[in-house]
Design a protein that fits this description.
With about 150 residues, this protein is of the alpha+beta class. The protein has a single domain, classed as Small protein B (Small Protein B, Chain: A, Beta Barrel), CATH 2.40.280.10. The chain is built from four helices and nine strands, in the order βαβαβββββαββα. The strands form two sheets. A seven-stranded antiparallel β-sheet has the order 1-8-9-2-7-5-4. It has a two-stranded antiparallel ribbon with strand order 3-6.
């Protein structure tokens, strides 16, 4: 019986630092059996991965899923391109925005939802160095205000 609810497996925190998130989607991932077992153990890494549309299919590249320890010869290449399961209209829309506006498709997180592996995919625009500095300054100011409120109470 699959478990209900959402369990986050891996997050790409660097993506929120390097990109402006414009829009997000939830996509299923086409995986082999040992890859699913490895993901359930938390052996997944989203660092330096991205998605592209190729021949009408959405593929994610650079997503590292460590080989399952008890998988023997059933294990696959950890960095193989994995197909994302999305509606055709969503894939076309993503492809048009990437081609016209020069945006990127970046995976933000991998999670289990009702027993199935899902990927949160975002349409992103790259940040410049001054944008990153602004974000850091805002975060520091917010932290200082919270400290001041706490010390007052």
């Amino acid at each position: 019986m699959p478990q209900k609810g959402v369990k986050v497996i891996a997050q790409n925190r660097r993506a929120r630092h390097d990109y402006f998130i414009l829009e997000t989607w939830e996509a299923g991932i086409e995986l082999k059996g040992t890859e699913v077992k490895s993901i359930r153990l938390g052996k997944c890494n989203l660092k330096d991965c991205y998605a592209q549309v190729k021949d009408g299919e959405m593929l994610v590249y650079g997503m590292h899923i460590s080989p399952y320890e008890k998988g023997s010869y059933f294990n696959t290449d950890p960095l193989r391109p994995k197909r994302l399961l999305m509606h055709k209209a969503e894939i076309r829309r993503c492809q048009q925005q990437v081609m016209q506006q020069g945006l990127a498709l970046i995976p933000l997180s991998t999670y289990l939802k009702d027993g199935r592996v899902k990927l949160e995919l975002a349409l992103c625009k790259g940040k410049k160095l001054y944008d990153k500095r602004d974000d850091i300054a805002k975060r520091d100011a917010k932290r200082d205000m919270e400290r001041a409120v706490r010390s007052k109470n």
